[in-house]
Design goal:
Elements (H helix, E strand, L loop, with lengths): L1 H32 L4 H9 L5 H10 L6 H14 L1 E4 L4 E4 L6 E2 L4 E2 H36 L4 H15 L2 H15 L16 H34 L3 H8 L4 H29 L3 H7 L4 H10 L3 H29 L7
Antiparallel strand pairs: 1-2, 3-4
Helix pairs in contact: 1-4, 1-13, 2-3, 5-6, 5-8, 5-10, 6-8, 7-8, 7-11, 8-10, 9-10, 10-13, 11-12, 12-13
Length: 337
């Protein structure tokens, strides 16, 4: 077990290195292949009002004229030990982990990400609990009552949940429940959990349900398919022949084996959401990482976009690592070596 954990940790670190390379390539190498000049990169750091002379000076001071390998080494070093940015009028320090420095706001990106992270984490965690409970339970009941009215209704609703985009369902729920019936908080409302837990939940209940509706539909269909497959296996018939209660057969033997693909999907989905639920946060005007990225794109603030991208990738890699370690707990057929 320990050997497996160490091997997976080494693999996770290697994956993070690869992710940093890919991220750097997307933002710097690919544009150069498309014809972007060092001055074009520098203009994203100084804003739209800078003169050509200033842009050229910034490009030289920030090292955009250096070879790509040197630029990446400087980029990776900043993440590990911090970085110094000389943009002409002064030298700015970016502490560890330096995921970028916004010259538009004159501050590092990492503190901004830390401030936004509680909003996104609260949104993702609450929605994840709802969609897991609703999606898995609906999928199990649909599989056990295959062809019934409940099965058709649940799968039809799941199809609608998968098909409808979040910005559409979000706007509809806001119009109906917030502005029409005054049952939920309007968009843009956020209260920290430590200040008022009740107000925190009240402000997020509608975004939770909207986000969970999309994912619960997918999980219901996946759970139903997995249960239909596992409930026909020989070991299920053996468990029933032993005289086990139907509830124990379904939960302990059938559902447990069907949870493996669900666990894999959940790890990826939750990791992505921790990195920013872009559409949900934009629809409800929540000050999370997703809206932070959208605002950075609108303002042409490249370091902020890169910071969110790297943070999202880290969460996805971490979630994948946790999922791999949980496989042996969920599925008895999996053995770690």
């Amino acid at each position: 077990m320990l050997t497996y954990v160490i091997r997976r940790l080494i693999g996770a670190v290697a994956m993070l290195v690869v992710v940093s390379m890919v991220t750097f390539a997307i933002f710097f190498v690919v544009p150069q292949l498309a014809g972007a000049t060092p001055e074009a990169f520098a203009s994203r750091y100084v804003g739209r009002a800078a003169t050509p002379e200033t842009v050229q000076l910034i490009a030289e001071r920030l090292g955009f004229n250096d070879p790509v390998v040197v630029q990446y080494a400087r980029f990776a070093k900043g993440i590990v030990v911090g970085a110094e940015y000389d943009y002409g009028t002064g030298v700015e320090h970016c502490p560890v982990p330096c995921l970028g420095y916004s010259f538009l706001n004159q501050q590092p990106v990492w503190p901004d990400l830390l401030d936004r992270m509680p909003v996104t984490f609260s949104l993702a965690l609450g929605a994840a609990i709802i969609w897991l409970i609703a999606g898995v339970s609906t999928g199990v009941v649909s599989a056990l009552r295959r062809g019934s009215f409940f099965d058709r209704l649940a799968m039809g609703t799941a199809l609608a949940g998968v098909s409808l985009p979040i910005f559409f369902t979000g706007m509809v729920t806001l119009v109906v429940f917030s502005y029409g019936l005054n049952l939920t908080a309007p968009g843009g409302s956020w209260t920290d959990f430590g200040e008022n837990p009740g107000e925190w939940a009240y402000n997020l209940i509608l975004p939770w349900i909207t986000l969970a509706f999309l994912f619960a539909a997918t999980y219901a269909r996946l759970t139903r398919a997995g249960m239909l497959e596992t409930m026909g296996e020989d070991y299920i018939r053996t468990a029933r022949a032993k005289g086990l209660r139907e509830r124990e057969v379904v939960v302990k033997h059938g559902l447990r084996a069907a949870l493996t693909p669900i666990l894999t999907l959940f790890g990826l989905d939750f990791g992505l959401l921790i990195g920013g639920a872009v559409l949900t946060e934009s629809t409800y005007s929540l000050p999370g990482l997703g809206k932070y990225a959208i605002d950075a794109i609108a303002n042409n603030d490249l370091p902020k976009v890169m910071g969110v991208t790297l943070l999202t990738a880290c969460f996805v890699v971490l979630a994948s690592l946790i999922v791999d370690l949980l496989y042996a707990v969920v599925d008895p057929r999996v053995r770690l070596s």
